[in-house]
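Demo today. Your pick:
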Amino acid sequence: MPEPENEDLTMTNPPAAENNSDGDAAEKSNAPAADAAAQLAAAKAEAAANYDKFMRAAADLENFRRRAVREKDELRTTATGRVLEDIFPVLDNLALAIQAAKQPGADVKSLVGGVEMVLAQLKTALASHGLKEINPVGLAFDPHQHEAISHLPSDTVKEEHVLNAVRTGYSLNGRLLRPAAVVVSSGPAKS
């Protein structure tokens, strides 16, 4: 709270000596006004400096935010490019398999073997980037990793264990991308 300017100064200042000249009295009465003006000027200068610092900090923060967004986009593009570079040979081999299948007298067994090798190549390329298959046949049902689509009785698989997988699930570096769609055993058939 600002101090009042027209406060009675006789309480805080000792009484002036009677032998002072009128010039000394005038200087002393102007001194508090000069001090107040100097303090006001100093406060304004400090406020301007603080405002300048604030504006610079706000600009730096905005620049940092923009740079972070740009770097995130560049990182995403680079990572996607690396995955695609690993998949190009798979695409090439699939194109060769299609050409081989179109040839007259194509051997189905060799085509199936070739497609299986291409599938293994694709799985290896994706696994090198952190993709993991979830194929839980015979394991206990886990609702965090599996999606039960039905229950069937089974004499060979324990109750609440996966009887078979209808669709393979996938996780990427520990994060579930797609749960495995499974049929769960309800235990031996009840008569």
In short: Strands lie at 131-134, 146-152, 162-167, 169-172, 175-178, 180-185.
